[in-house]
Design a protein that fits this description.
By secondary structure, this protein is α/β, with parallel strands linked by helices. The chain has helices at residues 23-32, 47-59, 90-116, 123-129, 137-146, 153-161, 176-185, 201-207, 224-236, 264-270, and strands spanning 8-12, 37-40, 62-64, 66-73, 76-83, 189-192, 214-219, 240-244. The strands form two sheets. Strands 4-5-6-7-8 form a five-stranded mixed beta sheet. The chain has a three-stranded parallel beta sheet with strand order 1-2-3, covered by helices on one side. Helix 1 packs across helix 2 (47-59) and helix 5 packs across helix 6. The protein is globular and about 55 Å long. Bound molecules: adenosine monophosphate (AMP), fe (iii) ion (2 copies) and zinc ion.
Length: 279
Amino acid sequence: MNKHPFRADLHCHSTASDGTLTPEELIELAKERGLQGLAICDHDTIGGFLQARAKAKELNILLGSGVEFSCQHQGISVHVLGYDFLPDNQELLALCKRHESRRSERNKKIVKNLRALGVDIKEEELLTISQEKMIGRPHIAKILVDKGVVPNFETAFQRYLAEGKPAFSHGETFSLEETLAVIHAARGKAFLAHPHLHRGRKEVKKILELPFDGVECYYARFTEKEAQSFLEIAHKQSLLISGGSDFHGSIKPHSYLGSSFVDEIHFWQIFTNLHEKLY
Ligand code: AMP
Ligand code: FE
Ligand code: FE
Ligand code: ZN
């Protein structure tokens, strides 16, 4: 008998994107926290998931495939969680590659915007902050804090980097429809991430009319009441349910691994390919 009830945190980030723990460290932390399952959903890359597989096997953690794609839909930013896909699918790998180029171009624009605003920052500094290719705004925010340009991470977003702020740039955008199609081509399941960040239930319901498989109902430190509204939508629209902490490590210290999770039933409803030895 396992001494802990089954819990699987299906949303966290590693150093492959903007998290501060390596994929292996995430697996070790999951073990320490008594989690049985995990999905590493790095932004626009599956590198973190791939790297964590050996450690997950060693420590007996059920590691499902995961990714969090950024896309645009009718002028709004949408994050889509992809789960249970085949990691060697060429369309999926090609989409990750295109995001790599998008980020590289976009980061150049953001640095240029910051320089135009009088901030002393150079493109080369981005290359030293992470060994990985999925460099994003949190990395830039960290540079601004380290340089003393802003007092903290949040202020970097509020003053410069959040959508609509003067240094912001989308870069190339990918449509939600295309993102869903790629996840499905890889036999994966697509979930709407952190639905509470949208403008309300009406917007969430509308987005979910597209071919989604599920919605992230448990998030970070949501109360049962906060989850309820999304559980109702999932039920009405016949969607699967996921949940996770969106843990990023020390860069976002208010979130901790395992703060949100799914139980065994919901885990296996999502990860139907896990035992096919296809991962
Ligand atoms: P990017 O993928 O480069 O567009 O950066 C998006 C990431 O930045 C999100 O996934 C969060 O981790 C982080 N982020 C976005 N907005 C904020 C904010 N206002 N404060 C702190 N972190 C943020
Ligand atoms: Fe992030
Ligand atoms: Fe997100
Ligand atoms: Zn996330």
